[in-house]
Amino acid sequence: MNLPAGSFQSQLTAVAADTERLLTELLAAKPVDGELARPNRLLDAMRYATLNGGKRFRPFLVAASASLFDVSRQRALLVGAALECVHCYSLVHDDLPAMDDDDLRRGQPTAHKKYDEATAILAGDGLLTFAFDILARDEVHPDPAVRGELVLALARGAGLGGMVGGQMLDLAAEGRFDNGRRQSLNEQGVATLQAMKTGALLRFGCIAGGILGQARAYERAALDRYGDIVGKAFQIADDLLDVEGDSATLGKAAGKDAEAGKATLVAVLGIEKAKARLKSLVGEAETALKPFGNRAAVLAEAARFVAERKA
Ligand code: GRG
What we know:
The chain is an all-alpha fold. Helices cover about 70% and strands about 0% of the residues. It has helices at about 5-25, 40-50, 55-65, 75-95, 110-115, 115-135, 145-160, 165-175, 185-210, 215-245, 245-250, 255-260, 265-270, 270-290, 295-310; strands at about 105, 110. It has a two-stranded antiparallel ribbon. A hairpin with a 2-residue loop joins strand 1 and strand 2.
């Protein structure tokens, strides 16, 4: 698949700027229909958690997959903004003392450091709920069945059998429960944990374009496969960065996984094998995208970006 040099980066930058604008509008001070008030401190913390320079890779996945089916950009951006709200909530809660206990996120104090724990918990709750508020809006799609499908898919990706479930498995593997006994996981166990914790939201980003575009079953299946592969690659790259990256570039503490004895594929396979796995996943991503031909070149490039990212 061929793509003019720099296309992926420029599309990512454009989606990031549009998402920032849209989230700023959505999180304005004025209450919308059905709301009584938007308390200042809560709104401030929700804005702090979302409008702070994330890569916006998930909204990019929605925009790029939606563009395969000529979906309007505004609709894709709204779904991307909803997904980003869930992602940002998960980061706020993941940083809390009861979870990863981090002081730094995206190069800034974490939400509970900037505000306080109660405010950070409520900001996360507010963002999670807000995601579904966005998806339920008429502007997302005129057909309520499409909106319902998006709501269901995001709920499944974010919840019990997705990200939240994956986080629970992660904490158990770390030895947080059961008197500190670590639940040792084999390669398959680690892969399942990561597909849930990290992969499920990325996968939603990829299939969302197919839902919005009312794509055919084989096209949805191809996006689902691609999303699964990108999720795996994203997590291996993240684990490698934790081992090899530095905190200044990452904007968060490095080296925490080994310190916490986290279940990662890098820990199970070793660095060299993990790197080889990452490389082969990039090839698998290209294969998954074959049904779309050159129109999916930017998604293939995105898989390479995930594998090679430095932050
Ligand atoms: C607390 C319910 C709950 C879930 C936590 C997000 C998460 C699940 C754990 C975070 C641990 C972690 C670092 C996972 C690796 C994948 C990941 C979410 C990385 C951060 O995503 P990026 O790189 O971040 O897209 P930006 O800042 O660019 O948005």
